[in-house]
Amino acid sequence: MGDDMRFYKMSGSGNDFVFFDLSDGGPSGMETPEAVRRICARGTGVGADGVVFLRARSDAAISIRYYNSDGSLGELCGNATLCATRLAHELGLVWAPEIRIETDAGSVAARMVDCLPEVDLAPVSEVKAEFDLIQRLPREKALGFARAGVPHIVIVDDDNASADVVGRGSIIRRDRSLRDGANVNFVTPSDGGSWSMRTYERGVEGETLACGTGAVAAAILLVEWGRASSPVRLETRSGRILEVRVVQEGGIWHTSLRGHADIVFVGELRRALGPLKAGSPWWLN
């Protein structure tokens, strides 16, 4: 491919990512906020919620680094981790039935189950079933907090189809009571015991079609509130289902997340004809 850099466009239940396999090294200047923003830009770039850099470590281990579309580093993204599990198997980077994935939030176990990727997230201990520092609206029946790799507010809403996800979500996301900000998830009971979920995602600063760690946080709180039992099925904005298994032991929540992860297409980033302002040599011609 010469100076071109192959990428994999992936979708995790509607959360879309640009993946780079750097197992054999890679070009300099890729992991900069400007480069990430330009790659993620819809209409002028590839378009994505985030960029993921993946490296094979052994037949049973990979590492990933995830960046939000605004160029900020994300500690963990559940759907990106599911996509990494799928991609590592598709590319033949791993062979073991169960693998380890090193993330900026720690190491997680992953596997393929019934042709879908599944990951065991790190134990969750920071859970507040009633987060009274943020006032609930009359239509909101419960509001809690859980740090599932990243911080999340979960709200049980009468009808999240009509909820002001962007307006309400952007205000809560920046609330002074949240030291790191938070993703904001609106959940509503759906048919068959499942839950509909919509998410305002920090770093993207808008609504995304799915959020894996948001599904985990929602499942924990729904079980804690006595509104659901494990496994919890959450229907994302894309219509895809994320399934979360939760077990509580001594105040610690152990969770597994399973969902769709698809390679949408494979492309190449080409070396730009002129230099970028930040010095990154990569962009689309």
Question: How is this structure best described in words?
Answer:
The protein is α+β, with helices and mostly antiparallel strands and 285 residues long. The protein has 2 domains: 5-121 and 262-269, Diaminopimelate Epimerase, Chain A, domain 1; 127-250, Diaminopimelate Epimerase, Chain A, domain 1. The chain contains 4 helices and 18 strands. It has helices at 33-40, 78-90, 165-173, 212-224; strands at 5-12, 15-21, 50-58, 61-68, 73-74, 98-103, 106-113, 116-120, 127-128, 140-148, 150-157, 183-189, 195-201, 206-208, 232-235, 241-249, 252-258, 262-269. The protein has an 18-stranded mixed beta sheet that branches. Strand 7 (106-113) and strand 8 form a beta hairpin. Residues 273-285 have low confidence and may be disordered.
- C-alpha-based Rg, rounded: 19 Å
* Total number of helices: 4
For the record, what CATH class of the largest domain applies? Answer: Alpha Beta
H and E order: EEHEEEHEEEEEEHEEEHEEEE
Please report the total strand number as a whole number: 18
Would you tell me the overall average pLDDT?
91
Please estimate the helix content: 10-25%
Q: How many discrete domains?
A: 2
The name of the CATH topology of the largest domain is: Diaminopimelate Epimerase, Chain A, domain 1
Fourth-level CATH superfamily of the largest domain: Diaminopimelate Epimerase, Chain A, domain 1
